[in-house]
Design goal:
alpha+beta, 13 helices, about 500 residues, single chain
């Protein structure tokens, strides 16, 4: 079986020259069998700060020589991770559903401290961005091919892919000859000429012609019926034979019998009368105006269907582990709902890929579903942790793409070594177009011991803490009023008893 690259060479002329300049990677599983193959070219454009209110743009390509450490393969998901330069990496996460697979997310991390790529950078931090590509419905045991350029822009980073040839789930230790091309590579069919205008104009002509047919239909029979009067005049010429037949009375008698035809000739006037009855169709033609009147009557507007209220989202349980043999360093349980402008959608934890990292004073939780990618960033400030940043990209249930981020949050704050809990529904505004709602929330991003939650600080306690001193204060005030009232009542009675003693 030939490799995918060889098949494309014979299928499309010239592609071998283009692909030869790309990056080619073979990923093998624990049994040393080929499980993932990729050959592609990626161009990066990154905007970064070089001074206060001044930025520069670095443009570079994914080098041909990369390390694939961190790439993984299994039956339902695969990860292609390419490490290059001084702390840069580019990775793609694949998942499979039945007989098709897709790309869930692209992750790009770049080190601003690499002076060879980012000269004069004011920062030395490593920044990570996420992109949601439209690579889906790729058949298992096929190679995904896209020679056209495909660009993803997120924040200050632009990634352009081209000459892509990938098979994420390799079967039988060999790449497939079958190709699934991207939509941009498929030939386009020219649009057919528009022919709807002529039929529209010809449909109006029958309405005009129907009115012109009324005149000849009714008038012609009436005129012809008048010409039948000529035989009546001719019947009078038969009187001459009557005068000539005076020599014999019998013919005269017979001549009188010829008057009957004259009488019969008058009966031909009946068709004239009948011809007038043809006016009825003219009257009937006017009844056709009723549909015209009806057509101008506007139809009643449809009654809008109310949008059903979404049920409470499913609570997901998420953990981050430094490696397979380590206990969890980050724990999070919650149900999540998004509101993008006027559209709401629940986040579905089933089938969601969980990644992240834990450091001394910060941690990250990244959730990637089939439609949304969410990145939570936690920090440790003065012995307390909090949710510092949130980045959300994806598309709504109606297919509208969206992206929102906020790097100046102060949410879910609790002491390091404890967890934060809030069972009630909470609403947070992330940006002008995005709000999130949390349900049954509990999170501990730092100092997790034995892989379980520590004692929780409940958000409900903050509200109850005000009730306790208020209740105590009200009780004391009531008690003071009772004492004063009893004092004045007793004093008044003593004064009354003193007056009566005299």
């Amino acid at each position: 079986m030939y490799r995918c690259a060889t098949f494309v060479v014979f299928l499309v002329l010239g592609i071998a020259v283009q692909l030869s300049n790309g990056t080619e990677v073979n990923v093998k599983d624990k049994d040393n069998n080929l499980c993932l193959y990729a050959k592609l070219m990626v161009n990066f454009k990154v905007s970064y700060e070089v001074a206060v209110d001044k930025s520069s743009t670095a443009e570079f390509e994914l080098p041909a020589s990369v390390a694939s450490d961190g790439s993984t393969c299994d039956d339902t998901s695969s990860t292609l991770k390419l490490n290059f330069g001084e702390g840069h990496s580019w990775s793609v996460n694949f998942t499979t559903e039945g007989k098709i697979y897709q790309v869930d997310t692209i992750t790009f991390s770049y080190n601003l401290g690499d002076e060879s790529i980012f000269p004069d950078s004011t920062s030395t931090e490593t920044t990570t961005i996420y992109a949601k590509p439209q690579i889906k419905d790729v058949g298992v045991d096929t190679c995904y091919s896209c020679k056209s350029e495909d660009t993803y822009e997120t924040d200050s980073v632009s990634q352009t892919l081209r000459n892509v040839l990938i098979q994420a789930f390799v079967i039988n230790n060999s790449t497939s000859e079958n190709i699934t091309p991207c939509a941009a590579d498929e030939p386009t069919t020219p649009a057919a000429p528009t022919t709807t205008v002529p039929p529209t104009t010809t449909t109006e002509a029958p309405v005009t012609n129907s009115t012109t047919t009324d005149a000849p239909t009714t008038d012609a029979p009436v005129t012809n019926s008048t010409t039948t009067d000529a035989p009546v005049t001719n019947s009078t010429t038969t009187d001459a034979p009557v005068t000539n037949s005076t020599t014999t009375d019998a013919p005269v008698t017979n001549s009188t019998t010829t008057d009957a035809p004259v009488t019969n000739s008058t009966t031909t006037d009946a068709p004239v009368t009948n011809s007038t009855t043809t006016d009825a169709p003219v009257t009937n033609s006017t009844t056709t105006d009723a549909p015209v009147t009806n057509s101008t009557t506007p139809a009643p507007p449809p009654t809008p269907t109310p949008t059903p209220t979404l049920p409470a989202p499913t609570t997901g349980k998420y953990t981050v582990q430094p490696d397979v043999n380590s206990t969890a360093c980050l724990l999070a349980d919650f149900g999540l709902r998004f509101k993008i402008k006027d559209e709401e959608m629940n986040f579905e934890p089933n089938g969601t890929a969980v990644t992240g990292k834990c450091e001394v004073n910060s941690s990250e939780l990244v959730l990637t579903s089939s439609t949304v990618t969410i990145k939570f960033t936690f920090t440790n400030d003065t012995k307390k942790f909090r949710l510092h940043a949130l980045n959300v990209t994806g598309k709504t249930s109606s297919g509208v793409a969206f992206s929102a981020a906020n790097t100046n949050l102060s949410l879910w704050e609790s002491a390091v070594g404890s967890s934060y809990m809030c069972n009630k529904e909470q609403n947070y505004t992330i940006s002008a177009d995005l709000s999130i709602y949390t349900f049954e929330l509990r999170v501990q991003p730092l100092a997790v011991k034995k892989g379980i939650f520590s004692t929780a600080e409940d958000c409900q306690a903050d509200g109850d803490s005000f009730l306790v001193p208020i209740a105590v204060g009200v009780s004391l005030l009531v008690l003071i009023l009772i004492v004063l009232l009893a004092y004045f009542i007793g004093r008044k009675r003593n004064m009354t008893v003193g007056y009566e003693s005299f």
